[in-house]
């Protein structure tokens, strides 16, 4: 009976209707598009079937870049938040620097990172690291700073030192904010990895997408887009599942 839930049926119905309108070229007539400009879902599915092993390999490569870069970027962002909370006078400036780095467009960072780290997984991981650091730093800092004053007074009344306050109060309070940042980074990391592959790479979905567009293999290019979207959604759902496991005590997980 779970499938009768409107939260599942309505999105499923909308998705099926969208694919049918696409397959029967309704969008082509509305926007005056040719089939080589917007391939039909059947053509995309055929391209995915014919190139399944290649697409699967390249999806795994891009996902590895995204996960590795997100883990490094999130860890660095969390450490920056710790420093900003522990030493507000000196650590606060690091938040401004991270926000400034995040304001730099990915297309500007990608050539620099590729020049520094070469044609390897490290350059795309570095791009993802730079694009995911700010979300974690700002969210984690907000969670560590927004503690209940009464809880803080209680810790001080028990003569708790600074490490104990951080461990049992500030870090605990920041976990919901941390998982919010991780869910943001789960999708941002895929974007960073694919954009990085556009510029200088010999593997990955971004590389294959760029080459497919150059030689007018649009169904194959759209196959890369579909798989990137699926990988991003799965990545997000994994983070969401971890959130439910690690912060069961939070009110948002009790509903």
Automatic annotation (TrEMBL):
<keyword id="KW-0813">Transport</keyword>
<feature type="transmembrane region" description="Helical">
    <location>
        <begin position="220"/>
        <end position="239"/>
    </location>
</feature>
<feature type="domain" description="ABC transmembrane type-1">
    <location>
        <begin position="59"/>
        <end position="243"/>
    </location>
</feature>
<feature type="transmembrane region" description="Helical">
    <location>
        <begin position="7"/>
        <end position="27"/>
    </location>
</feature>
<dbReference type="InterPro" id="IPR035906">
    <property type="entry name" value="MetI-like_sf"/>
</dbReference>
<dbReference type="Pfam" id="PF00528">
    <property type="entry name" value="BPD_transp_1"/>
</dbReference>
<feature type="transmembrane region" description="Helical">
    <location>
        <begin position="99"/>
        <end position="117"/>
    </location>
</feature>
<feature type="transmembrane region" description="Helical">
    <location>
        <begin position="177"/>
        <end position="200"/>
    </location>
</feature>
<keyword id="KW-1133">Transmembrane helix</keyword>
<protein>
    <submittedName>
        <fullName>ABC transporter permease</fullName>
    </submittedName>
</protein>
<dbReference type="GO" id="GO:0055085">
    <property type="term" value="P:transmembrane transport"/>
</dbReference>
<comment type="similarity">
    <text>Belongs to the binding-protein-dependent transport system permease family.</text>
</comment>
<keyword id="KW-0812">Transmembrane</keyword>
<dbReference type="GO" id="GO:0005886">
    <property type="term" value="C:plasma membrane"/>
</dbReference>
<feature type="transmembrane region" description="Helical">
    <location>
        <begin position="123"/>
        <end position="141"/>
    </location>
</feature>
<keyword id="KW-1003">Cell membrane</keyword>
<dbReference type="InterPro" id="IPR000515">
    <property type="entry name" value="MetI-like"/>
</dbReference>
<feature type="transmembrane region" description="Helical">
    <location>
        <begin position="66"/>
        <end position="87"/>
    </location>
</feature>
<keyword id="KW-0472">Membrane</keyword>
